[in-house]
Amino acid sequence: MRLELKGLTKKFGSFTADDDIDLVVEPGQIHAVLGENGAGKSTLMNMLYGILQPTSGAILIDGEPVSFSGPGDAIAAGLGMVHQHFKLVGPFSVADNVQLGREHTQGMGVLSAKAARKAVRDVSEQYGLHLDPDAVCEDLPVGVQQRVEIVKALSGPKTELLILDEPTAVLTPAEITELLQIMRNLAAAGTSILFISHKLKEVQAVADTITVIRRGKVVAELEPTASESEMASAMVGRAVSLRVDKTDAEPGEPRLEVKDLTVVSDAGVKVLDGLELTVHSGEIVGLAGVEGNGQTELARSILGLLKPDSGHISIDGRDVHGRGVARRIADGLGYIPEDRGRDGLVAEFSVAENIVLNQYRDAPYAKGGVVDAGAVHKRAVDSIAEFDIRTQSPDESASSLSGGNQQKVIIAREFSRSRRFLVAAQPTRGVDVGASQFIHSRLVAERDTGTGVLLISSELDEIYALADRIAVIYNGRIVGEVDPDTPREVIGRLMVGADLAAAEPPPAAEAETADVEASSDTEASTDEDANGGDR
User: Fold this and answer.
1) Acidic residues compositional bias: what residue ranges (predicted)?
2) Per-residue pLDDT for 507 more than 80?
3) CA distances from 489 to 471, 495, 502, 505 (A)
4) How many CB atoms are closer than 10 A to CB 168?
C-alpha cells in the first residue's frame, strides 16, 4: 500500500493541531514520524484512522482519494492502528479482545471461540508474536499487551499499513528490542508501517525515512543516518544537549532509611526480601534493575500505598509506620509514579485540578475549607508556562493530553512545592528529548537544594547520567552499591543476580596474571594433545 497525505489540516476552534501536513509512505516502508510531546503526531494519526475528521486536505491510498467516517472504514481499506493508550478490555481474553468489532460467528450468529483462538494463533505464528489466546489481558505484562494490540490490528481482512502510535512509551528495553524486530519482520513481509515516536535511538535503529513535525508542521525530512543532535534540534527547534551537566554531590544526613523491608505478595512470594537502602540529602541514588524485581513495591511502600509485612522506613529520622499517604506528603515526601494513569492523575479532572491534587486543601488554594478557584487557576497558568505543558486551557481534562504532557502535569505538581525527599519512578517515560532534558536538570537542581532523590529507572543511560550512587536491585534485595563510573557490564551482571565480588572484573594485575596462567594452561594442553595426551 502507498499512502499519501496532502495538506492535511486539523483545527479545534482557533487552535491548529496539524497544519498543511504532506507525507508519503511507500509499500513495505517503515516511515517514522518524529516530534516532541504535543507536536500533533497523534492527531495526525487519528485523522488517518477515521477517529477525527480533517478540517482540510486529502488522504490518498494507491493514488485514489479516500474518506473515512470512522475506524471501521479505515480497517476495511487495509489500515490497522496500535494506539498510544491501549484499547483492551482487561477482563477479556486475548482472543475476545482481538475479535471485538470483527466477531467470528457460526450458525445463528453464535460467537465461535474456536475460530477466534485460531485467528490469534495464525497471526501470532506468522509474525513471531507468541500469544496465548486464552490469557486474560489484565494479567499480562505491558509488553505482551502491546503484542495483543498488534495482533488485533493485523487481524483485519487485509491489513497493509500499520500505525504504531508511541508504541514503546511503556515498554522495557528488552520489550522494545523485541518490538523493533517485529516491525522489521512486518516490513519484510510487505506491511507498510507508520512509526510515531520521539525516541531517537529507536528511530535510527528501525526507520527507512523520517519526517519531523514541530508545532503541527512538517519541519524536516531526514535519513536514519542523521545524528541524534540533528534530530533533536529539528524536533524542538533549538540545540539540545544530550548530556546532563552537574557538579559532584555533597551528601548530608540520611533522608531515607529502609531497613530489612519485606513485602509478600498475595501469591506468597517475597517481592521485597529484607531490603536495605539509605539515601542522603544532596544526592541522587539510582535504583537499577530489570523491571519486576521489587522496584514498584519499594516505591509504593515508601509513599504508604503498600503496607510492608516487616521492616522499617524512616524519612528524616522519623519512622513513617502508621502515617498515611497524605501525612507523608505533608511532611515533605514527593512522588513521581511509574504509572501516571493509575497513580499520577485523575483523568477526568482538569489540568488545573491535577496540578494541585495533593495541595488543594492547603493555602493559598483553599480558604476556610473552600477551594479558591482563582488561586488554582493562577497556579495552573504559571505551571503550564514554566513546564511547557501543551494544552488548550487549564480547564482541559488531563485525559485529552498526550502521554508526555500528562507526565509534565505530574512533574509540575511535584516540583512546585517544597519537599525533603523525592521518589522519581520512571520520570521521563513517554517524554520527548527536550522535556527529558528539562526534567533531568530539575532533578539535579532538587539534589543541589538538599533534597534526597531516589531515581528508579529502567533506562540505564538515565541512571548513569543522573546518579551519584547506583544501587542494583534483584529479587527484592539490593545486591550491590557502586559508583556511576562502574562499567556497564558489572551492573549488567548484578542486574541478573551476580554478587558484587563475582560481578566486578579482576584488577589489571590479577587479570594479566590470569591471562598468563590461562595461556600456559592452553600451551600445556596443546602439547599433551600433540603427544597423544596423558593416556
Assistant:
1) 512-535
2) no
3) 15, 10, 12, 9
4) 22
